[in-house]
Amino acid sequence: MENSDFISFLDNYKGKKQFLQKEYLEFIKIVNHDYLSNSFGSPNFCAHYVPPDEDMYKKWQETHNVELKIDETQKEKKIISVNISSFDDLIKMIQDNEYDEQYNYNIDLKSLHIIKDDLVKLNNMIGMKRVKESVLDQLLYFLQGLHKGSRGDYKHTVIYGPPGTGKTEVAKIIGTMYSKVGILKNNVFKKVTRTDLIAGYLGQTAIKTKKVLDSCIGGVLFIDEVYALGSKSGNDDYSRECIDTICEALSDYKDDLMVIIAGYKEEIDERFFQVNGGLESRFIWKFNMDKYSADELFEIFKNIVVNCDWNIDETITTEWFKTKYEKFISLGRDMELLFTFSKICYSRRMYGNEGVVNKILTIQDIEKGFNIFNDNKNKDNNEISKYLLNSIYM
Fold first, then answer.
1. How far apart are CA 367 and CA 325, in angstroms?
2. pLDDT above 90 (res 306)
3. Which of 39, 77, 93, 375 has the greatest number of beta carbons closer than 10 A?
4. pLDDT at residue 39, as a whole number
5. Domain final residue, candidates 288, 304, 338
6. pLDDT for the residue 256
7. 27 and 157 inside one domain
8. Which residues form the AAA+ ATPase domain (predicted)?
């Protein structure tokens, strides 16, 4: 086969996104007058002759952006036994079955491998049993394309739960996964609150809200504490203008936008959904974040400590967290503050002990750190930040 013959063949595919492998092989067969097959009669053809210049083909492919795609009908079918009832089952199934391009699987194994790390990350988050089950249902539903059609389903999601339960992190993982596998077109995740959506004058709020919505097309808009957009009285014209604009976008961009809202269930129902009667029916996915137990808070605290290259003394146990449990209203968020205040107390205790900085928190550090935490728990975040900045023990 001459290079000019091969280039002439390739040029027939300029402007196309791909050409099938069987067409490529058929061309080689005709030009070389050679027989293509294998000794087992498999539908997978193999060529005895290849283009004389592989670099030439690669350069042409890059120039014209035409992908060589193996025809699905030419792939060997491979059935994977599936029995999924939990995230653990799904992850094990992925780990037990490597993806191979030459096979046509009965499940979308390629997509599952693409998001394997995200699935593991979500599964490793402490607690959240009900949320993990809900995300699993949503994921398997979307991967099979069952949400598509002339009357496609909404992807919009509510995450109910108190502060400090990991709602933002779950929302980010969902957005990342769905963008990676094409359920969402763009890897966009924008977290907003009331101040990002509501303007200072009537008429401007709709413009401001729409601008935010437009920036999230193809991705995820996450509205934390969404109930702050509304009011119990329902007489806030600014809120209504914002919420009405959101409601309209939920339908207009149902195929290209995923809006995730979060907050306490009662307040979302009373101060958000009741503002516009069409809102709730557009959020068909509802996830419930369970409040962390004392045991789970202890595990979260240990994870925070270890991930920051610190450690805790073995005398610190879950029993200590049970005695202080009611004080940790913001749950996981409070564990981060407790760690910070405990480090401050550690720094005072260790000051002057040259060469003995082991970064191991003792029960004494935790107790004193908790006292600082308790003194600051009724202050807002700005006040706490000022305290930390002014502390000589950081």
1. 13
2. yes
3. 93
4. 37
5. 288
6. 93
7. no
8. 153-273
The CATH number for 225's domain is: 3.40.50.300
Contact between 290 and 128 under an 8 Å Cβ cutoff? The reply is: yes
Give buried/exposed letters for 117-139 (b at 16+ CB in 10 A, else e). Answer: ebbeebbebbbbeebbebbbebb
**Is the same domain home to 46 and 139?**
no
Q: Which of 41, 74, 107 is the last residue of a domain?
A: 74
Among 65-69, 100-104, 344-348, name the most confident range. Answer: 344-348
**pLDDT tens-digit readout, 336-384:** 999 999 999 999 999 988 777 789 999 999 999 999 999 987 665 555 5
Report how far residue 121's alpha carbon sits from residue 110's, in angstroms, rounded to the nearest whole number.
18
* Side chain identity at residue 178, one-letter code: Y
pTM listed for this prediction: 0.75
State the residue for tokens 């509802």. 286
Q: Which of 111, 186, 118 is nearest to 145 (CA)?
A: 111
Domain extent at residue 321: 294-390
Q: What is the mean pLDDT of the chain?
A: 84
